[in-house]
From TrEMBL, chain A:
The keyword Oxidoreductase applies. InterPro entries: Ald_Oxase/Xan_DH_a/b, Ald_Oxase/Xan_DH_a/b_sf, Ald_Oxase/xanthine_DH-like, AldOxase/xan_DH_MoCoBD1, AldOxase/xan_DH_MoCoBD2, AldOxase/xan_DH_Mopterin-bd_sf. Keywords: Molybdenum, Oxidoreductase. Residues 22-138 form the Aldehyde oxidase/xanthine dehydrogenase a/b hammerhead domain. The keyword Ribosomal protein does not apply. This is Xanthine dehydrogenase family protein molybdopterin-binding subunit.
From TrEMBL, chain B:
Signal peptide: none annotated. The keyword Methyltransferase does not apply. This is Xanthine dehydrogenase family protein subunit M. The keyword Flavoprotein applies. Keywords: FAD, Flavoprotein. Transmembrane segments: none annotated.
Amino acid sequence: MKAQDKQIGAPMNRVDGHLKVTGAAKYSAEYELPNIAYAVLVGSTIARGRITSIDAKAAEKAPGVLAVISHFNSPKVPGFDTAGKDPSQPATAGGPIKIFKDDKIRFNDQPIAVVVADSWERARFAARLVKAQYAPEKHKTNLEASASEAFLPTAAKKNPKHPMNDYQRGQADAYKTGAIKLESEYVIPTEVHHPMELQAITAHWEAPDRLTIYDKTQGTMATRRDFAREWNLPEENVKVIATFVGGAFGNALHSWPHESAAIIAAKVVNRPVKLMLTREQMFTMVGYRPYTWQKLGMSATPDGKITAITHESIGQTSTYEEFTESTLAQTRMMYQSPNVTTRYRLAALDIGSPIWMRGPGEATGAFALESAMDEMAFMLNLDPLEFRLRNYTDKDPENGKPWSTKFLKECYQLGAERVGWNKRQLKPGSLRDGEWLIGYGMGVGTFGAHRGAATVGAQLLPDGTVLLQCATTDIGPGTGTAMTQIAADALGIDPKRIRFELGNSSFPKAGTQGGSSTVNSVGPATQEACLALKDKLRTLAGAGNAAFASAKKEDVTLADGYLTLSSNAAAKVSYADLIKQGGDKAVTVEAKPGGEGQKYSMYSFSVHFAEVRVHELTGEVRVSKLVSCADAGTIINEKTAGNQMKGGAVGGIGMALMEAAHIDDRFGRYVTKDFADYHVPVHADSPDVQVAFVNQPDPHVNALGTKGIGEIATIGVAPAIANAVFNATGKRVRELPITPDKLI
Amino acid sequence: MNQFQYVRPSKAQAAIEAVAKDANATFIAGGTNLVDLMKRGIATPQKLVDINRLPLTKIERENNGLRIGALALNSAVADDKQVREKQPLLALALNAGASAQLRNMATVGGNMLQRTRCAYFYDLTMPCNKREPGTGCGALEGINRMHAIFGFSDKCIAVHPSDMSVALVALDATVLVTGPKGERRIPFADFHRLPGDTPEKDTNLERGELITAVDVPDGPFTKHVHYQKVRERASYAFALLSVAAALDIENNTIKAARLAMGGVAHKPWRLTAAEQSLVGKPATEETFRQAAAVAMQGAKAFKHNAYKLKLAPNTIIQALKTAAAA
């Protein structure tokens, strides 16, 4: 690759691809520290009540066991007494479980004890010997049964400007008096993230007041903050390392009880402790997409103009923590409608806390909104794409601001062509291939183009490598690769000479990888740090070389071993000389959003087109084509971005057709506990997903023009498939997943 | 996992003795189900008798049929030329099961002996008469989407998860076993049990009895066969229900028929009355529809599996149509 080629946009292979496929990449359960011990959690077998006794005698006597820790003997965790609700997370009320602090059971499989042993097998064996007695109380695990007790989130009650408050423009519930109207209820079951890598932590107290944890987290700094608070330590005394994260989809956005348990265990046995959850435990204690009930009312004129939308939802949360998400956001801004009402409520149940799962609330809300759009188009005898075009908005109807950029019409056109939308018939059940009914559907997604502050350090190494460091994480999208490309362009050097290190809370600070914001935030910091490094080197070179002193920084080139000027090849200063003058000191630059968010409404957009085949006798659904088109601003790496879109689309297939975690309400306990019962798509379920990007830079979000991809890859996929199933069969399924029993 | 002893005899007699004499001993072959059950504490054998050294992997001609060794791998049977020629229904059913990796480990004998996938059976904290007699049936009034519509009792409504066994019961196979009292032959239809009052017993094998082979007699079902498995995803899932269909058709008239269902009962469910209703009739959708109606006599659903009352006849019709067209 020539140094002067532009790297942004190139389909570069992942910089860590070789490490990942050869097993050299180290994940949080793979740090074999000297004298390490292993911890296994014991979970409660009731959903609500109190622990009356724990018999740990047999476990304590089992071979290799170092400790059995429960609320009866746990050391005091100082932050459990002082830390109340987390002020940095205003969307929540209450707080995470304070593990082993009291005898209260708040959900089934809540950790009640942790067994530590000298091998994982011995810890697991002993964990089964721990016997607990309970005083059970009546539990609630069913959202419908608790719907009458649903409440406005506390954060909204306290702050009338909080986005979880009821929203209204125009008249409330105006759809009820509309000429043509619909009112439909939709249900999303509990879905579980289930990344391939299980949640795992290796906790190491390097000194009584210094903690290092190798942890599966999407935010090294957020995790550092949480555990520094839990142990009343200065943040710099806690180090969080997450060099590689094997997928997360949101479930590592929060600190969970197993992490606290491992840190307590390491304190008690005074050895590093490794704790990895089982797949079964991944259902119960590390979050999930909450079961959500929604009602959507819509009215329109006979010529296809929406006159009113009301969208209500009740999402489930735990009894100890109020989890909220933006289920109703898309409804407020996606379509031109003079009257819009939204009402968001929570139902507190005796289950673990939910956490954002890819696309999060927007994906849940889009299932209702985009299904209703299809229902209304059908009532109006209109092509659903035409119906959306008739209600297209050129500015944000929620706040009246112009879009920073919006190329959704271009996405519509690209996607419709690729899926063969012209084959779609208005009348359901018109197309078939033998026993297979064929249908086409579409669903739209949008997500805020969020940007936060981020800092990147850039440093010239003696061998000419530029080392970049940032505390951000890479849960799979290829952050290190994208940053390498951005840096290569900013420095004008071969990407092979750049090393981007991340996943360490000691590196220059960055936010959590979530909400499709990493490239938007860390990208500009990387770019600015590289430009600053180049300018610093020019300044250093200028001290002894007049040609550099007067040169413009764009003129400066980093060639093999030398700093030179593109306008003057004779001017050169060796790296060795620069380093002697302090050129190897890191330049650290923070990049922050400005006031652009006040002036513009900034969103990424996507549309997904599905072709499905439904067997008329067995009700099986197969997605035969899936086309995802995105307006996500500048695409830094077409390959990794395309990969991210495909992954999100496959997640959408799971959401539409198979994913559901069921609780038996009599026991308040999941009956889906493994991949035999909780289905995620296999290769045979996924067509070769076609991805197209508009690839137009957004000049307002940041200098790179990016808007974010992660969420819009999933938002809108499930309704596209549900709408295609309706087009194939005439059957409208409003409760996901669309399994054969619902179609026959 | 509990501690256990492990032995690997090279003679069948030694293996049989080891299990016959020890109530806490059990055979292990591929281990694709047993090891899972041990990890979860559902099976707690104190001795594993590994039979993989026994010479029971052959697939050979024997008395106008195929004799398939109990240790023949699922993948080896599915790919065997004689099986594909003489008993294509069996190959289809095998390939519909599990994943390629599991089929490469699982044996014919082990496939027959796999335990139910009922979620209540798999959770030590929930009631389950099959796992712990007398604790009740969690599924009876629980989440019973996957459960039986035929042959259940109030003690157990679980289903047998094997695909292979559905084909074998349709093909009139016979199970060959050797035990402390010698050899015996068990017709496949009598191998698995209905739950009755003893759901803890899946089969009629006695302690120490070792499956050595399965005999599948030659028949006319070499062309018009189909295994229709309905599941929520395209691969690697247990059946919501499945149908094994085999027809012998001459001049568009059905001379003989075999029909069995999986995912509907505690054992692979042979549909003898429906088979008889097909004989002598033209191979038409109407005939298949009538057979499906006969097949469904006596079916009864629970709260979450009523869909099976419609899905089962639909799947029978689809399987027969596909078999006839094959």
